Description:
heterotrimer; A: 2 domains; C: mainly alpha; MetI-like fold; 11 helices; disordered C terminus
Amino acid sequence: MGMNSPTRSWRIHPHQIAMAKSLLGRFAQLLFVMLAVSLLTFLILSATPGNIVDARIGPLPNFSPEERERIVESLTKQLGLDKPLWQQYFLWLKQVLQGDFGFTYQGLKVTDLIGSRLWPTIELGFLSVVTGVLGSLMVSLLAFRTRFRAVRGAVQGSMTLLLVMPAFWLGLILVIVGASKLNWLPAAGYVEFSEDKWEHIRFLILPVLTLALPQIALFFRYLYSGLRDAENSAFVTASRARGISERAVVYRHILPNAALPTITVIGLVAGSLISGLVIVETVFSWPGLGALIVKSVEVKDYNTVAAAVLLTAFSYVVVAFIVDIIYQLVDPRTRRKS
Amino acid sequence: MSGKLSISELSVNYRLGEAKLLAVNALSFAIPAGHRIAVVGESGSGKSTLGLALMGLLPRNAEVIFENLELDDSTVNMNNLSEVRALRGRKIAMVFQDAKASLDPLRTIGSQITEVLKVHEIVSSDQFESEVHRLLTQVEIPRPELVARQYPHELSGGMRQRAMIAAALAGRPSLLIADEPTSALDVTTQATVIDLLRRLSESGEMSTMLITHDLALVASFAQSVMVLYAGNIVETGSVDEIYSTPSHPYTKALLAAIPNIWADRKHELDSIEGTLPDLTEKLSGCVFEPRCTFGKGRDLCKSTTPEMKALPTGGRVACHFSHEVRSVADIRGSATQVEVKFNLPSTDASKRLVREFDRAIPVVRIQKVSKTFRRGSLLAANRSQVIAVRDVDLLIHEGESVGLVGESGSGKTTLARLIVELESKDSGSIFVHGSELQTSEKKSPKGDVQFIFQDPGDSLNPVMTIEQIISEPLVLRDGGKAKDFRDNVARLLVEVGLRESMARRRPSELSGGQRQRIAIARAISTDPKLIIADEAVASLDMSARGQILNLLASLQRAKGFSYLYISHDLSTVRHVCDRVAVMYRGRIVETGSADEIFVHPEHPYMQALISAVPVPDPKIERTRQRIQKVNNMEFGSPGENSCAYIQHCDLAREKCSKETPYVLSSAEHGTACHYASESAERFSRD
Amino acid sequence: MNGAKESLIQRKIKFLLGQPKPLIYGVLMLAPFLVLAALPSVFAPHSPLAILDKPFLTPSGRYLLGTDEIGRDLLSRVIYAARADILTSVSAAAMAFILGTLIGLFSGYIGGRLDTITMRTVDVFLSFPTIVLALFLIVIFGRAQWVQILAIALVMTPSMARFSRGSGLVLRVRGYVEASRVSGASTAHIVRVHILPNSMPTLLVAASVLSASAILISSSLSYLGLGAQPPDPSWGNMLRAAFSFVYQAPLYGVGPGVCVTMVAGAYILIGEGFRRKFGDNQGIIGNTKNLGGV
């Protein structure tokens, strides 16, 4: 039996069943949200100026207008587009659930195209959130523990500045400094990891930083004010009154309590990361989902847009679900009383 | 034996910008080892500052000046942070007011106690678990193995406070400071926690310093009492001496302001006029002079600060005229008087009164009303429901004051909110002035029932002027604008004892007592038939409390409306009400005239409530047998067909688990208990 | 007469100087942009569209910020861009503010089923990525400025509604609201007399954060080519061009970049100023952080 064993045994808690039940409920809610998102996507799609059939079959350059007309007609019937809107929705939903999003303008399968763009986006997004979390943790603790007001002020000032800088301007600065002036890093582009792993990482650095710096600033806002709030709470005074060392008070009591609200924010940011990715991938010519969405919108490739939107909404919902689980693991108060 | 403490010339200043606030002024006192001392004072008296100063936990803008501090014969430099830190939790430990906020919500009780054991190296690591169990047992927590694994939010208020005491005891301190440890707790829990603190220090292993605003509370606990006013010790002495022959006018006034549930209810409550002096200014003369009934205006008191002088009985007092104070006969609260009140018989007159009421049309008639709260949405699995009010019958007659008592969570506030439709009932019917709520087409006129809320800081819209606030019910009933009712507002302000010029001010410029007067003025503006006062004085200071209670009583005499007065504080209920209904877990368990119910309570729960009220007399307190809210697990938790109180009743039998007892609504004194007569008999015997 | 007038002015100055510092700095920072947006022709030295000189000239006395890829004056383009960017963002923020506040306050105050439905709808909108939704709407309804404004307003309304709902929820249990209900007040009366005035401090903070978000979203859209269409300048499309020519003219983007940052920063400062001015007496101001934009 190690020194910590009694403490550890207390943490095992007879709450798993209650937790599973509450997660099940949450899951049902998320299903509902997804369904509503799909309906909204469908409605926007059917409100698009172009016909869905046009969108589905593409330009068909090798056919005459009469032939095209016939194809459109038969496809309209086949797709049930002469039916009422709500029936169309269920037909569409059925296909979507089977993983069929139709074809792009170029005649590629939408799912294939998106599949090829998925990995670079996940890599970029994941690394930026990790950097954001670790960075904000360091910066917040620095500002919280320092004795010098100037350090605190400098951190707060620079964090506010980062928060109001649009991603493309921040990216431009990083490129000017890192690429054009110092020539350390490539300005934009992408190299497969399998091709050259070092080159791949060099191309990653600027986009990851561009995404992560505003996140650091945002998480800092929450974490720092959380630290200040926790510092002033009664249980911290009580811990000090029990003779707990300053270090233990900060890391065992203040930090965990301060981190709680930040977890929600991290989840929100991670879930809606695509908004940032749209810009950053465009800025750095990163071949991910964000850049794909922009391009598809420009060329009115609605099938691709619909698929990408559903996918990002889905990822938002999944991240929210994961955050819920994490929150319940960390905060005993969200678990039900036995 | 340890816990010997002596302090000389301890002062604490707070820097507030340019100004300095002298919170504690040259305190000197000493206590022997294993002693129980109570430090008593109003908010702003410096009592909490004293406690935090001893712990070295004052905020950064505080400055501590002291001549000498000795604990267990070793001197301590209070300005040497590392020296003070070494004492924290080890030699001196502290228990705080709000146990919920004072325990880390993310850690189990066990791990928080273990942390203390670890940092002070009290026992070796393989004994942590058993030591935690021992400590939890010591503070009388049942099932310590379970509680050690629980988180603070899973425990009741009383259990949390016990857990915090256990964490304080873990370092085996020689001095335990308890700062208002019970003011966040229910009455019955309050009494048991104070009892626990007393028992813990009876072994003589440590001294205990109880810091409180409630002088009544210390009678059973303390051996000696130190009364603070505006940062100064005004009197100190043994607890018997302080209660029987107070030598300082302030002590005397504090004792007189304790509402007494055994006293005759129709007299005006004593209150201390005026407010604390401004401590940022240099004061000359006696600090209490402006509020003193003995010394106000006397030259000596105005010019010279009284020295601490020894009294023949052993205590010390800072008053020029203490001999005068001691010689004036006590107003009330003496032991003999209390004993007489114990056996006050219910008069025929009050019985007759109850019968007459039955014939008149009631202002409010409540029949079989129930209300259940459901939390969480339909889909959420953590959906829970709380039955707040269950099958309640209640009548309120014209001109009558009905008291609704019970601990927090008993459903009394919900019942009141049902009457004014702030909540909607699930079943049953409520008639206000003959018309039924939620069904009747003819609504009772707007403003017939008014509500006075607990927190006057919260019940006045901060962006409105007093005129707009008071006239709002009139505007809503009669239409028009606030300024159309200027005359009404002026009259109402005078009626609640304020100046007419106050109409133009805003709530933030007013004191707590003044705000509550505004809330009262708003409530009486529409000449209501019924005023519901929900803990209307609970958030006020002792002195303002008495004034507001007196105002409520005099307004009723003048206007003849009815009160539904809701409170957990039996002594104020006794002061205001003709009739009392006791609620427990959503049911009314006892009802009857106030005279009857306070003297001959029949329900074991009401008996426990009354037993928990401290008698302001140490001699009685020490020998008094309390009827307690026990933990009776014999019949399991209360079910659909059992008595709601079964889990805490010392008289529970088989029948109580099978059949829910009801109050007979026709009875003058009805009790929802199968064994009411037996229960009543044992109470009068005790 | 004169003396009284002066003392009034003095009092006003005193009042202004007594405001929290971030508020003063924020207003001082924002004011020049508002002036430029209102009267670009007065301050711009050249036409924003005229080709005046060689491309990529470095800053000089003649062209304070240099020239762009076809030799137009960058300073003039930056100044004219302020008009489109600020108009779009302010109108969008105002619309989102009014709509979101109304929905949120009523939903939070009334509660119950209405609140559940509103909040589920908000959830659905929030799970859509902001920018993508705006992109979508603009592509469908065209690139006119009013479409942009509507699109940005629409994507910001749900978070504003959720925020002000919190304020409604907090205030509905206040004693003065309940006292008003006991006296028979209608929902409209309570929202107008009690909830709205007491939410105002928080709502002002929210409005500032919202405006900052709006300028960031609108410039992001024009960066992606969905804002003002070339040759009309906007800070977003200028930055896009700057990025393409980062090796030829590294300082191309400094003007528009600094402008966007300053305007957004000014709004945040003003919000911080409001926060300090009103304190957190309702306990809900802290939530404005949830309105954080892109």
